[in-house]
Design a protein that fits this description.
The complex is a heterotrimer of chains A (362), B (269) and C (414). Chain A has nine helices and 20 strands. By secondary structure, chain A is α+β, with helices and mostly antiparallel strands. Chain A folds into two domains: 229 residues, P-loop containing nucleotide triphosphate hydrolases (Rossmann fold, 3-Layer(aba) Sandwich), CATH 3.40.50; 112 residues, Nucleic acid-binding proteins (OB fold (Dihydrolipoamide Acetyltransferase, E2P)). In chain A, the strands form four sheets. A six-stranded mixed β-sheet of chain A has the order 6-7-8-3-9-10, with helices on both faces. Chain A is elongated and about 75 Å long. The N terminus of chain A is likely disordered. Chain B is mostly helical and 269 residues long. Chain B has one domain: MetI-like (MetI-like fold, Orthogonal Bundle), CATH 1.10.3720.10. Chain B is globular. At the B-C interface, helix 1, helix 3, helix 4, helix 5 and helix 6 of B face helix 1, helix 10, helix 11, helix 12 and helix 13 of C.
């Protein structure tokens, strides 16, 4: 099994108040502060236009920051051209050189990093083995499948042992099955080599699967930087709550003593720690809502009306009215669904455990 | 595709008519050229069809005339020099223009393309006045300079089109792998756009090799190019030797056309 | 609030500009050699032509003393004696330096007959060694009555400036009257607007001709199976690649009196004697339409190729008949191609020289041919340049429309 290299806390890359504007009027990246730790797998996750790819391109040296500094190993690199940064990049469309063989592609960076002759040949063979493409060295990139091209691009970015490898949606062009296999393979290589990777994607499940930490981008800013579990369980704000996985946002009121949350519709949840009183928003994941008879004694029950039902095989998805929300999403396991057989228009009692409720910061 | 299966009878007639008309227009396009070829092989100096008997005497005429040979030599020298200079300058310009957010791209492009648009007589008279003052009238240098200006847009347009199909990430990838800018160009960009650059060179060569008007104004008897030689021949009395020259020019055009087609297919990979 | 936000906004603009500057300089640096080359070999020569169209060097070069002296003349009666004395000195120098002919030729454009008067005056004045007793006024007016005419002197006065609008006015059939006001030239001398009009007319007919022939061709190629389309386009591209001179030569052979077309028509009995085809408007139009056809067809074809056939199916399923589907759905989408093709053909047709020169009628030539003739035959470079300026401005105006509406990038080859 995988041996996990411990992730250090030492900063390899630091963005300090970095901004980027193309037109001089709007900021694509707004005052970004972000640290990449040595050895970690950091994902920049966000919808298109959120500034994540621009951030990656500035780190690689293809775009110049409009203001602010980027430190690599403690030294500012904004003025350093890409070829002097020693950063490997894997592009969305792989950017393999079509007029060179796989071997020539992989050997390309070696001459610029002082590796020539038999040593270079040895290195190329070694990475070809690592990506399971022994014997493919003489082929042209166009003679390879998408997944194979992807692996060659990865090998090329790793072969010269860069300080850091950047990946810009590298799996976007692959079909679902291959994508999932490559996620595991990349993670495997990253752990065994201990290399630092900054990965850009808009696919939240890919981010959750692969990352040590995830920076959620929206509107040119990092909304939250945290590990996958924390991001899922304790989203910092409404955007993160709804972008990572599916979520229900519920209106509520915190009592004057700050210990109880009263949701619209009357359900009351005791909070683990006191917070400031007043109107708040709380979230509950669809999979944390269940039929009342399956719930524990501590669970909080509430009435709901089924509006729509979608059966998806391993589970069913109900849209209900309840907790003061017109479209409350409920994810119900197939077994439970087949017993209850809820129909549109019927009423039922749902329940959730108190710890399923997360109050969003105001 | 000619006719959809749901075509009405009226539509069938209409489309048939359009296609027949198009075939006639296509014939109109090539027929004049095809007329020249057999006449150049006629035994008699009369322009009648069918050609009574064939011979290569006009070609022999052509190759035994020092005037024709010298004019071919002059044209070749000028066209090769033009192609070399225009290709270098045009390729550099196309590389600059294809970079993102080039300042004032539309206007700069319009200026660079303008030699294709400005009436050739104006170019010729301007060059005649301007180069005359510089002592470049009746020199090959003046003609090469003017022809290069005329050929530049062809190179720029061709290479720009090729570069629009070039993935800039390849250059970025090469840089990230450690290659300095000149190596990126030499090892990655140039090999990939080479067919487009070669096409541009062919266009530039053809532009110069076919050009008459500027050459008429800028050359004396010594620098007289092939088209100028043909032009004065036609003005005096059109003769079958001119047909032979025209036929050879058609053959050259076909060869260049095939070359560019082959290069275009290669560029697509 | 907004007053606070503004400086920040401006500094962002400045920062963005600074951050983008190195890349922009590299891009500019790559384009610069080509631009500079064009400035020297293309733009400067055109500038020389524009300068030549207003150049008035001869009077100032020869009438060194006369022109300053005549400046104060009020235009009433004859100029005072010092002006005549200055003219005498200038003419003597001109006779010695052999520059009188150039001056005479230049003044002849404005006052017909002046060439010989200047030459004879220069000869006569040179023979007078010392200032004549009766003064230069009497001596010079005695040579020819033209020197008694105030119009002669006002023309001289008018030409004191090193630039003249004479050629440009002339190229638009205008002239300055004796009083200096701009007026139309007599109808018998007005030819240049006719030539400009003829040039525009021929270009328009050629454009229309290529469109009528080219649109169905492009359409057939767009709906044809790929192999047939490729063949049709081969027929379009091959002529484009062939030298303009060769194509024009072919038309000479076809059109001339003992040429191919006449030969056929006589054999088939359509006519008993050769029909005049070459050196006619018909010859020019036929050859020009043939030569320009590919330029019109290619943009139309490339636009048509991108219109999905499913659109016509959709139109039909929505109830449109075949003609209505074509006119309401297909044809409007081809307009960008049609305008690009027609505009480029019109622009290029304006500048034709070779074809009218070889197959056109002697009295039916286009602008370019007159420009060439004024340079080579009449040696009137000023007028040639002025006509060139008019043709250039017309062309550039249309080119500006093209660039504005369609963009310079649209200009493609093959």
């Amino acid at each position: 099994m995988l041996v996990k290299t411990p992730v250090g806390t030492e900063a390899l890359v630091a963005f300090e108040r970095v901004t980027k504007s193309y037109d001089g009027a709007t900021l694509v990246v707004k005052a970004l502060d972000l640290t990449v730790r040595r050895g970690e797998f950091l994902t920049l996750l966000g919808p298109s236009g959120s500034g994540k790819t621009t951030t990656l391109m500035m780190l690689a040296g293809f775009e110049r920051p409009t203001s602010g500094h980027i430190l690599l190993d403690g030294a500012p690199v904004e003025k350093l051209p890409p070829e002097k940064r020693n950063i490997g990049v894997v592009f969305q469309n792989y950017a393999l050189f079509p007029h060179m063989s796989v071997e020539e592609n992989i050997a390309f960076p070696l001459r610029y990093h002082g590796v020539t002759g038999p040593a270079a040949k040895e290195k190329v063979d070694k990475v070809l083995g690592m990506i399971h493409l022994e014997g493919f060295g003489g082929r042209r990139p166009t003679q390879l499948s998408g997944g194979q091209q992807q692996r060659v691009a990865l090998a090329r970015a790793l072969v010269f042992q860069p300080k850091l490898v950047l990946m810009d949606e590298p799996l976007g062009a692959l079909d679902k099955q291959l994508r999932e296999r490559m996620q595991v393979e990349i993670k495997h290589i990253q752990r065994s080599l201990g290399v630092t990777i900054v990965f850009v994607t808009h696919d939240q499940s890919e981010a959750l699967t692969m990352s040590d930490r995830i920076a959620v981008f929206s509107d040119g800013m990092v909304q939250q930087l945290a590990g996958p579990t924390e991001l899922y369980e304790r989203p910092a704000n409404r955007f993160v709550a709804q972008f990572i996985g599916e979520n229900n946002v519920l209106p509520g009121d915190v009592s004057t003593d700050g210990r109880a949350l009263r949701l619209a519709g009357g359900a009351v949840v005791l909070l683990p720690a006191a917070i400031a009183p007043g109107a708040v928003e709380a979230t509950v994941r669809p999979e944390r809502l269940q039929a009342a008879d399956r719930a524990s004694d501590r669970a909080i029950r509430f009435p709901a009306t089924v509006r729509e039902v979608f059966f998806l095989g391993d589970h069913a998805r109900l849209t209900c009215e309840g907790l003061g929300v017109a479209e409350l999403s409920v994810k119900m396991a197939a077994a439970e669904f087949s017993v209850l057989q809820p129909a549109a228009g019927s009423s039922l009692t749902l329940a959730f455990e108190p710890e399923a409720i997360h109050v969003l910061a105001r | 595709m000619w006719l959809p299966q749901y075509a009405t009878p009226g539509e069938r007639i209409g489309r048939t008519f359009v296609v027949l008309f198009a075939v006639l227009v296509a014939l109109f396009l090539v027929a004049p050229l095809l007329v020249v070829v057999p006449l150049s092989f006629a035994d008699q100096p009369f322009f009648t069809f069918p050609v009574p008997s064939y011979s290569v005497r006009w070609y022999a005429d052509f190759f035994s005339s020092e005037r024709w040979i010298v004019s071919v030599f002059n044209s070749l020298v000028v066209a090769v020099l033009t192609a070399v200079i225009a290709t270098v300058l045009g390729t550099l310009a196309a590389l600059g223009l294809s970079r993102p957010d080039f300042p004032g791209r539309g206007f700069v492009m319009a200026v660079l393309i303008s030699p294709m648009i400005v009436p050739i007589v104006i170019v010729a008279v301007g060059a005649y006045l301007f180069f005359g003052n510089l002592g470049l009238a009746n020199t090959r240098t003046g003609l090469v300079l003017s022809h290069t200006a005329l050929a530049l847009p062809f190179v720029i347009v061709t290479v720009t089109a090729t570069l629009s199909g070039y993935d800039r990430n390849l250059s970025r990838a090469a840089a990230s792998l450690g290659a300095p800018p000149l190596d990126v160009f030499r090892r990655v960009t140039l090999p990939l756009i080479a067919p487009g650059v070669a096409s541009g060179a062919v266009f530039a060569f053809a532009t110069s090799f076919d050009e008459v008007v500027v050459a008429l104004f800028l050359t004396g008897a010594e620098q007289r190019t092939l088209p100028v030689q043909m032009f004065s021949g036609i003005r005096d009395q059109i003769n079958p030797t001119i047909m032979a020259a025209a036929t050879m020019l058609i053959a050259l055009s076909v060869a260049l056309f095939v070359t560019v087609g082959w290069l275009a297919r290669r560029a697509k990979g | 609030m907004s007053s606070l936000a503004e400086p920040a906004h401006r500094s962002l603009r400045a920062q963005t500009f600074r951050a983008a500057l190195p890349d922009r300089l590299i891009a500019l640096g790559l384009v610069l050699p080509a631009l500079l080359f064009l400035v020297v070999t293309f733009i400067a020569p055109i500038g020389a032509l524009l300068m030549k169209s207003v150049d008035n060097a001869e009077p100032a070069a020869v009438l060194v003393e006369t022109l300053p002296a005549i400046g104060a003349w009020d235009g009433v009666g004859l100029p005072p004696e010092p002006v005549f004395a200055a003219l005498a000195a200038d003419l003597k120098a001109a006779q010695k330096n052999r520059t009188a002919a150039g001056l005479g030729k230049r003044l002849n454009y404005e006052l017909p007959g002046m060439r010989s008067k200047i030459l004879s005056a220069a000869r006569a004045v040179s023979k007078i060694e010392t200032p004549p007793a009766g003064g230069w006024t009497e001596a010079i007016t005695g040579i020819d009555p033209v020197w008694k005419d105030t119009q002669t002197w006002s023309v001289l006065q008018r030409n004191a400036s090193p630039v003249t609008a004479h050629y440009l006015l002339n190229s638009l059939d205008l002239t300055r009257g004796p009083d200096g006001a701009i007026a139309a030239v007599p109808e018998s001398e007005a030819i240049f607007l006719t030539i400009l009009g003829r040039t525009l007319f021929i270009a328009a007919v050629v454009t229309l001709g290529t469109l009528v022939l080219g649109y169905p061709l492009a359409y057939a190629a767009a709906i044809a199976p790929p192999a047939v389309a490729a063949t049709l386009m081969l027929f379009v591209l091959l002529p484009l690649w062939t030298s303009l001179l060769v194509r024009t030569t072919a038309w000479v052979v076809l059109l001339q009196s003992n040429g191919v077309i006449n030969d056929f028509m006589m054999r088939l009995g359509f006519t008993s004697e050769p029909v005049q085809l070459i050196f006619t408007r018909f010859g020019t139009l036929a050859a020009m339409i043939h030569i320009q056809l590919p330029f019109t067809v290619l943009p139309i074809y490339s636009v048509m190729r991108q219109i999905p056939q499913t659109q016509l199916r959709a139109a039909r399923s929505l109830g449109a008949g075949p003609l209505s589907a074509f006119w309401r759905i297909y044809a409007p989408q081809t307009i960008p191609g049609v305008s690009a093709g027609c505009l480029i053909t019109f622009i290029l047709s304006l500048g034709y020289y070779l074809t009218p020169a070889l197959v056109g009628g002697a009295t039916d030539q286009m602008m370019s041919n007159f420009i060439s003739d004024f340079i080579n035959r009449d040696l009137n470079w000023g007028l040639a340049s002025a006509l060139g300026t008019v043709l250039l401005l017309t062309t550039l105006a249309l080119y500006a429309v093209y660039v504005r509406v369609l963009g310079a990038d649209r200009i493609r080859l093959g």
